[in-house]
Structures are given as structure tokens and as C-alpha cells.
């Protein structure tokens, strides 16, 4: 059998490249499980709906897109070529936007360790509505109905709720929307919203009722013994 030494064989698979010897062209990286529908200069991220399984091959590294000739170029080069993606209302195209963008359910995301993303992002002061996928101001966010008894929807305090275990939690400034217990009620171990007297107590002065009163008295600048 004739063997050709050093033959570099590859073929194109859905804009990604399968490479026999795992060597990739410039500005590309080899992935064992990359997207089978990778976006490119003429196919912005928001227009790609991919339900296919991942594939193995070479893909453009972060910040690069595949152009019409099959090369991976900086996203800015796509824009210079007149391939500016059409973003929706209150959106703007970014070649390196946050991979953890602000949303209605998470207006103040935690520090994001993921690489930046390419695509359309909400403009400053707007948030991605989880229900409609539109960019809106916080007051226009869709309010999800709270189905459990004694719960109300809160735009910012769902991530740090008073509970029977900790009636006076120390909260960070991170804002998170969701269903919380109605004012005056605490979250029990079984996730129900109950009055403080229904919280289990260990029979000492450190029980939930005492902690709850201490929290109130701290606000009133009183002392509780």
C-alpha cells in the first residue's frame, strides 16, 4: 500500500475543520467537543439555533470568527468587511462582551471567570429579560408569578432571605430576583414561609425568635437580653 509521508488531510464540517493530526491553522484551536454549528462573520451568534451534537475538530479561538474564505479573523475584521450583525432594540454588537451578562434574574452577576463572548449584548442600563430575551430596564422585567403560599416577587433580595436558621443574614450587594417570603415571615427548612413562632427552637435564648427580636432591636437601636 502506497504511503505518503507528511500528508495533511482535513475536510470541512459545518464551518469547523476536522484535522487528522490535530494540527490547526492560525488562530484556531483543536477541540474534542466543539459546536457543530459554529457562528461566523455572516452568521452572528444570535441567529444560530443548534440542536446537533458537538463535533471534534479545529475551531476559531475566542475573539475570532471564520470569514468567507474559511480563515479565522478578528471579529473587528468582519465588521470592516461590512458584515455587521443586526442587533435588536437596546442591543449593541461587541467582539468581546461578558460571557455572564446582566439579566433580569441576575442584575448583578458574580465575577465571571469565563472568556468573553462575541455577539449582541444589552446596552448599558438594560438587562436581558429571561422570559422574552429582550433588553429592558429593570422596571420592565417580566415578573414571574410566585405560586407558593405567603411568597412575593422581589427584584433584588432573592439571594439573601431571612430564614429560621438565620433570621438576620449578612447579605452582599449582589442583586438577584425571585420569590421571597412576605414581610415578617421566615424561610423554613422545608422552604415554606412561616411566622417566627413556628420556627423550630433549640430551647435556648439563641433560638430563631430571640434572633429575630435581636435583629429588630438592632434596627431600633435597642438592646435585647
TrEMBL record:
Entry keyword set: Disulfide bond, Protease inhibitor, Signal
Highest taxon listed in the record's lineage: Eukaryota
CDD domains linked: TIL
Any GO molecular function: peptidase inhibitor activity
Residue ranges that the Swiss-Prot or TrEMBL entry lists as coiled coil: none
Disulfide bond is among the record's keywords: yes
Name of a matching Pfam family: TIL
InterPro entries for this protein: Ser_inhib-like_sf, SerProtInhib-TIL_Domain, TIL_dom
Family annotation (Gene3D superfamilies): Laminin
Domain TIL residue range list: 24-78, 87-141, 148-199
Signal peptide extent: 1-16
UniProt keyword Ion transport, yes or no: no
PANTHER family (alphabetical): ACCESSORY GLAND PROTEIN ACP62F-RELATED (PTHR23259:SF70), RIDDLE (PTHR23259)
Protein name: von Willebrand factor
Source species taxonomy: Eukaryota, Metazoa, Ecdysozoa, Arthropoda, Hexapoda
Amino acid at each position: 500500500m502506497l504511503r505518503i509521508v507528511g500528508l495533511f488531510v482535513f475536510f470541512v464540517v459545518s464551518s469547523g475543520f476536522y484535522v487528522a493530526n490535530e494540527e490547526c491553522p492560525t488562530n484556531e484551536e483543536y477541540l474534542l467537543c466543539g459546536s457543530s454549528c459554529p457562528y461566523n462573520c455572516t452568521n452572528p451568534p444570535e441567529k444560530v439555533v443548534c440542536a446537533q451534537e458537538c463535533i471534534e475538530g479545529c475551531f476559531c479561538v475566542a475573539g475570532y470568527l471564520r470569514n468567507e474564505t474559511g480563515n479565522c479573523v478578528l471579529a473587528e475584521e468582519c465588521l470592516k468587511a461590512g458584515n455587521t450583525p443586526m442587533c435588536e432594540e437596546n442591543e449593541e454588537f461587541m467582539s468581546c462582551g461578558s460571557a455572564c451578562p446582566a439579566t433580569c434574574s441576575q442584575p448583578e452577576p458574580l465575577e465571571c471567570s469565563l472568556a468573553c463572548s462575541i455577539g449582541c449584548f444589552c446596552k448599558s442600563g438594560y438587562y436581558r429579560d429571561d422570559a422574552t430575551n429582550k433588553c429592558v430596564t429593570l422596571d420592565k422585567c417580566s415578573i414571574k408569578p410566585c405560586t407558593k403560599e405567603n411568597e412575593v416577587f422581589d427584584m433584588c433580595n432573592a439571594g439573601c432571605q431571612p430564614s429560621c436558621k438565620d433570621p438576620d443574614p449578612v447579605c452582599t450587594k449582589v442583586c438577584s430576583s425571585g420569590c421571597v417570603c412576605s414581610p415578617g415571615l421566615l424561610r423554613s427548612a422545608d422552604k415554606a414561609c412561616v411566622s417566627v413562632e413556628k420556627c423550630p427552637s433549640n430551647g435556648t435564648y439563641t433560638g430563631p425568635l430571640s434572633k429575630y427580636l435581636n435583629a429588630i432591636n438592632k434596627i431600633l437601636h435597642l438592646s435585647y437580653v
